[in-house]
Amino acid sequence: MPGIDKLPIEETFEDSPQTRSLLGVFEEDAAAISKYSQQLFQAMHRIYDAQNELSAATHLTSKLLKEYEKQRFPLCCDDEVMSSTLQQFAKVIDELSSCHAVLSTQLADAMMFPITQFKERDLKEILTLKEVFQIASDDHDMAINRYSRLSKRRDNEKVKGEVMEDVYTSRKKQHQTMMHYFTALNTLQYKKKISLLEPLLGYMQAQISFFKLGSENLTQQWEDFLTDIGTSVQNVRREMAGEVDVMQQTIQDMEQANDLLYMPDPDPSLVPVNRNLTRKAGYLNTRNKTGLVSSSWDRQYFFTQGGNLMSQARGDVAGGLVMDIDNCSVMAVDCEDRRFCFQITSFDAHFLFAEMPSFYWQEIAARVNQSALEAVTPSPSFQQRHESMRPSTQGRPQAARASSVSSAGSETASPALSVLSLDALVAPNTPIQFDIISPVSEEDAGQAKAAGQGRRTNPFGESEGTPAEESEGSILHQLFIARFLGCMEVRNADSSDVIYETMRQILAARAIHNIFRMTESHLLVTCECLKLIDPQTQVTRLRFPLSSVVLFASHQENKRLFGFVLQTAEGRVDGRPIIVCYIFESNNDGEKICDSVGLAKQIAFHSEMDRKATEKKKEQDKAKEKQQEELSKQKQIEKDLEEQSRLIAAFSRPTPLATGTDGQFLVLSNSQSEDSDAGVEGREKGESEA
Questions:
Q1: Beta bridge partner(s), residue 552
Q2: What global pTM score does this model have?
Q3: Following DSSP, what letter does each residue of 101-116 receive, concatenated?
Q4: Considering only 40-44, 387-391, 588-592, which range has the smallest mean pLDDT?
Q5: Where are the strands (E) in 490-575, listed by range?
Q6: Which of 181, 216, 368, 617 has its CA 20 to 30 A from that of 472?
Q7: In whole angstroms, what is the distance from residue 508 CA to residue 506 CA?
Q8: Contact 320/311 with Cβ under 8 angstroms?
Q9: Residue 469 and residue 462: Cα distance in Å, rounded?
Q10: What pLDDT does 47 receive?
Q11: Least-confidence region, from 272-276, 349-353, 433-437, 569-573
């Protein structure tokens, strides 16, 4: 091909500077070709990847259109016209997907294969020959350098021959490598044009074939179909525009009509109250008990239906019965944290609501008796776990009892409770402790008196006998917020009923004596103990060894209440262990705290079992070592006895005589005799082993 420069192969042997300079130009050209080919390869690879993605996406679209008739939309009825139209589209798109798949195959064969071959084979061959030529050139220079430094003395003929042989081999290798390198660089000028033109030719031929295949599939029938679909889309668009105009006008009318109702306190003269409504609905805030003396307000949607008050949570399909309001009384009450409060009171429950003025409680009051009952302070009931044992009240639905508010007044004890023999759980007239009395302070005071003036007391209330790193080695550390309600001594710790009965008595005693103060602490659960820590000073108020905690449970209905039973090692006069039940209220779910305590006891149990197993193994190892030592001593004693008996036998044996060369007898020494005996014994031993 004219116009292409070549490297002179015939000048490779001389290896002149001009040839090397021309070689450098060709190497720069090869580097530029490699860089440009890499960029072109990336661009064509993006085309190939995009075509594959387009083919896969087209096939997925066709598949989804075919599955439209299997879909069940909540607001769409069976539209046969829409389904058949999408099926026609799915058929067309499926044919187009096949065309795209064919185009992807043609691009892989006609476009990507040639440029990949040029990149992976030809350009890498140039780089390999360049490295080989550089190595051969360096070897030739080193051989020439050695030859130049040869000595002129004749005694170096052997060395001279080796050097000349090295020069011959390196020069031949350089010449051959250089010729092949020049040939590859000259050929690269032709391959460069082929690698640029052949992929582009394959790309254009594949696109032309794709367009021809598409034009054959998209006939006049499909063009008429697409025209009809376009007309239908325009009709739907005009219908949608008309509907949007109607809804916008409705929005404007509603905004003007309800402008006065946006105010939280509308003027009754401008917005008159309709007292002829048979049904009222709206949002109310109802108060729920969250603790012993604390409460929270929940916003729910309420409505009247017949003589019932119904509530419906957001997202629910239907409402639930709250109470029957035909036999209730309604009265306005004052609340410190809410406005517009009123109270609905029945014979076994009462509800307290805070409303927006738009929901007029007088509408409900018109349907009930106007006689008001006194407000009853709600007290928590802890006997609901026996609700199934109580006789049902005639004419009252159980839904009112399951509501979020507390039952009013005092409830009579169920006859089923007597079966439980509560006296067997908690002794009558047992004193209750309502506050935490840390024994640490008393111990510190006693230590300070015993130490006198020369000893400092611990200002943080921690005893010196407890190490600071007591819980650092524990693998479980969980911290909870707990409020101490009280503790009292119980008779046994056989079941969770002990904790439930203790909860009932402590809360009843708090309500009777108006004790509302609770000590808040941090409850730390570890594998060794339970700690009550002061949140502000971080002083340990109480510490319960985990091994002494024999029972723990949370309340079945009020999940914030939990307790545990502690059994101490010391006994009273009669020798019976002291069993104390502690009751707490937490911000979290009490079951989580009980689960944490249970996990800690499991970990402690497994740790104790592992410790015992390790100690047992150590004892077994020591016994084995002692046994080995005894065996070694016994073997040593036997060996010594055997050696002693052999020596005694050797000395008691008569001195052997030997005949000399001159016919005379020679007297052997004891050492020679022992050596001869050892030789004989060695031979006998070897024969026995053989």
A1: 564
A2: 0.40
A3: HHHHHHHIIIIIHHHH
A4: 387-391
A5: 519-525, 529-533, 540-545, 549-554, 561-571
A6: 617
A7: 5
A8: yes
A9: 13
A10: 93
A11: 569-573
Q: Does residue 263 register a pLDDT over 50?
A: yes
Q: Measure CA 56 to chain center.
A: 34
| 233 and 144 part of one domain | no
Domain-ending residue, one of 374, 392, 408: 374
For 234, the 3-state DSSP assignment is helix
Q: Which tokens is 364 given?
A: 């409900």
Predicted confidence at residue 361, as pLDDT, reads 39
Same domain, 211 and 232: no
Q: Same domain for 318 and 247?
A: no
CATH of the domain at 611: 2.30.29.30
Asked, for residue 2, whether it belongs to a domain, the answer is no
Q: Write the DSSP string, 363-388.
A: HHHTTSBSPPPPP------S-GGGGG
pLDDT tens readout for residues 425-468: 776 667 888 887 654 444 444 444 444 444 433 333 344 444 44
DSSP 8-class letter at 156: G
Domain that holds residue 170: 17-71+78-218
Do 120 and 233 lie in a common domain? no
Distance CA 593, CA 504 (A): 20
222 or 113, which is more confident? 113
Identify whether residues 352 and 238 lie together within a single domain.
no
Indicate if 232 and 174 belong to the same structural domain.
no
Q: What is the identity of the amino acid at 606? A: H
Strand partners, 283: 301
Q: Which of 374, 409, 437 is the last residue of a domain?
A: 374
Report CA torsion sign: 7, 9, 12, 16: negative
Same domain, 287 and 326: yes
Q: What are phi and psi of 667, to 5 degrees?
A: -90, 125
Count of the separate structural domains present in the chain: 4
SS3 617: helix
CA neighbor of 440 nearest in space, from 424, 459, 427, 454: 459
CATH number for the domain including 178? 1.20.1270.60
Element containing residue 343 per DSSP (H, E): strand 341-345
Q: Tell whether the model's pLDDT for residue 664 goes beyond 80.
A: no
4 is a domain residue: no
pLDDT in tens, 382-431: 333 333 333 333 333 333 333 333 332 333 333 333 434 556 677 666 78
Would you say how long the chain is, in residues?
Answer: 690
**Position 273 in a domain:** no
End-to-end CA distance of the chain: 90
Q: What is the pLDDT of residue 294?
A: 65
DSSP H or E segment with residue 432: strand 432-433
Poorest-pLDDT segment among 121-135, 259-273, 300-314, 362-376: 362-376
d(CA 428, CA 250) in angstroms, rounded, equals 72
Listed range (84-93, 482-491, 643-652) with the worst mean pLDDT: 643-652
> What digits encode the pLDDT tens for the residues 127-148?
999 999 999 999 989 988 888 8
Q: Residue written as tokens 């917005």?
A: 271
Count of other CB atoms within 10 angstroms of residue 555: 23
In a shared domain, residues 101 and 142: yes
